[in-house]
Design goal:
By secondary structure, the chain is α/β, with parallel strands linked by helices. It is built from five helices and five strands; from the N terminus they run βαβαβαβαβα. The chain has a single domain, classed as Rossmann fold (3-Layer(aba) Sandwich). The protein is 40% helix and 16% strand.
């Protein structure tokens, strides 16, 4: 990624273990990024709409979204993001433990950019997250902000 600033990854995840694994993968893969973690759907939308304590927050370059969240479901968040002209250009990667075909189809219908089932082993989780973030942050051209 040829930007002068670190890209921002918004990690919408309520599981502290998955947050640790994702952050550790970034460090190990030498992926320079600012990771913002929010633990529920309401907090995620406040951040994205730059409200409250997130008023001065930079919008993320990519979003890693768990589907099963407290307060506001990940599917609802995805729908809101993709209906908002300012937010809809941000790639949203559903990163979830759900293997439900209904969730896969619904996520793509809601315009998720990718659907990834969380691997159960650390090595596989690290490989998948590294490959995903390498693609989105080093290969794909994202909109300038």
């Amino acid at each position: 990624m040829t930007r002068e600033r670190k890209p921002v990854i918004l990690l919408i995840e309520d599981n502290p273990g998955d947050v640790r694994l994702t952050c550790k993968t970034l460090e190990k893969g030498k992926i320079e990024a600012e990771v913002v973690v929010v633990k529920d759907g309401a907090e995620a939308m406040a951040y994205l709409r730059q409200r409250g304590r997130s008023a001065d927050a930079r919008l993320p370059d990519i979003i890693l979204l768990d589907l099963n969240l407290p307060k506001k479901d990940g599917r609802e968040i995805l729908a809101e993001i993709k209906q908002d002209p300012q937010l809809m250009v941000i790639p949203v990667i559903a990163l979830t433990s759900s293997k439900s075909e209904d969730d896969v189809v619904k996520s793509y219908r809601l315009q998720a950019n990718s659907y990834i089932i969380k691997p159960s082993s650390w090595d596989e989780y690290e490989r998948v997250i590294s490959a995903t973030l390498n693609y989105w942050l080093r290969i794909a051209k994202l909109p300038d902000r």
